[in-house]
Write a structure and sequence with these properties.
By secondary structure, this protein is α+β, with helices and mostly antiparallel strands. Helix content is about 20%, strand content about 15%. The protein has one domain. It has six helices and six strands; from the N terminus they run βααααββααβββ. Strand 2 and strand 3 form a beta hairpin.
């Protein structure tokens, strides 16, 4: 039997667990070929960064994080609800954005010098075996969840492949 991909399953990450204090740095393994070749190159770092910018970031009117970057690697996209993006090819990992954020929502470990990317193991998943990142997360912050069901409180869809749980900040509904 070949790969049987369930396209409704998305990578679920619980940011509350990731930032609870026990996990000082991400120690999970990644099955992506190029990530296995270089220790510390972990695709989940990019997922956590995207999740943080989409859900936890307070989307300030005057973004101190963006203004503090000496190489203009951080950008607040006005046309996309002030979503932050980090231009990996510009970033020098000085972490000035992390220090400038008055709310502490740019975690220093999410601003690595090397660019990481996650392909969500979409072409390597089958029903019998979950992705390596999920199996090796010692705090059980990762899992696969169906994206077509009703989401719990403080749980959000981010893009096509990620579901995030975070209670760090409740954004006011305008």
């Amino acid at each position: 039997m070949g790969l049987e991909l369930n396209k409704n399953e998305r990578l679920f990450i619980d940011l509350d667990i990731c930032t609870a204090g026990e996990c000082k740095e991400c120690v999970i393994d990644c099955s992506y070929f190029y990530h296995r070749q270089k220790p510390g190159n972990n695709g989940i770092v990019s997922v956590a960064e995207l999740a943080t910018y989409a859900v936890v970031c307070r989307k300030c009117e005057e973004p101190h994080c963006v203004n503090s970057c000496p190489v203009e690697a951080l950008e607040q996209q006005k046309d996309k609800d002030k979503l932050l993006i980090r231009h990996n090819m510009r970033c020098i990992s000085c972490k000035s954005c992390s220090h400038a954020c008055p709310y502490g929502t740019i975690y220093p470990e999410n601003v690595p010098f090397l660019a990481h990317s996650c392909d969500f193991c979409l072409d390597r998943r089958d029903k019998k075996d979950e992705p390596l990142c999920i199996k090796t997360c010692p705090y059980k912050a990762l899992s696969l969840k169906k994206g077509d069901t009703k989401l719990d409180e403080n749980t959000f869809l981010v893009g096509d492949n990620i579901i995030i749980h975070s209670t760090h900040w409740d954004r006011e509904k305008v």
